[in-house]
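Researcher: Next sequence.
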Amino acid sequence: MVGEGVKTVSLTLGEKKLEVVCEMERDPATFVESLKKRGYGVQLVDVQEQEPPFLPRKRVVILSGCPIGREDPVELPSDVRCLRIFECPDIRSLSDMPFFQQTNKLGFCSIHHCRGIESVLDLSSTSQPCNSFQNLELLWLENLDNLHMLVKVAEEASVVSTSSSLPMPGIFSHLESFVIKGCPNMKQLFPCKLAHDLQNLKKLVVCHCVQMEEIISSEEEEESRKGKGINTRTRFSLPKLQELVLAYLPELKSICSSNRAVICDSLWDIEVRECMKLKRMPLYLPQFRDTHQSVPSEDICISPREWWESVEWDYPKAKEVLRPWLYFV
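Model: Next structure:
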């Protein structure tokens, strides 16, 4: 029996390790015993000041080197608030984990160094909406060698279909911060349909993804527009986006389709480094509305200078307006 408060359940199986941080208001013996039967060594310890400050210290699940998949019967707390996964090579997507289907309070999720993961969510075999991410605020993906899409859906369920036929709408509707680094097989980040859910996104960081070609995929959108005979440019908004980092993306060609512009009324912090194939900036910034307004002391960080001189903005006088905040590294 352990005392009340936040406790860590630390389990080991050879070099494999799993940690669960949660409120232990009742005797956790039943939970611990079920894991002992599967061959884990179990130890209960107090939580120290070991978590990063931006992550909660309650209701945290940490999976490290665990062989968890679709057939794994392990049950974890359904009210998990933070999920951290690293070096779990057998996980193909979060949908592989049975307990993930049961949670709807997840606010923070990070996945690192999982070479087997192919998609964050796999909805290809279900027509039901995904509720596990309905409260997600932070998603951090790093060094996932085989990741090639965020959400996998059935081939016949095209993202230009009606929303009633898709399990995708609303998946990232509460997402505030998204970071993806070192995922060499990602070519398109957000499907167009999914991008419309990013109305609460405040921070977007995309770095060291050597095959990344598009931030918002244009393929399905252009097919839809051709079918409807639409040729005019349309706009959509990321009203809360404050920080945008695009760095070391040698194949990046576009942020969105040539027929779309992105309204970013809160975007003051921009960093673009080594994206030499990016020829167009479709962003409409708050500085463009009123060039005399008082703005935050944020910077626009660019590297190299040659890219800035060659890139074209949709807004005609963008480079002139942005000069006071511009610096080169």
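Model: The radius of gyration is 22 Å. Residues 7-123+130-151+169-218+234-328 form a domain with the Leucine-rich repeat, LRR (right-handed beta-alpha superhelix) fold (CATH 3.80.10).
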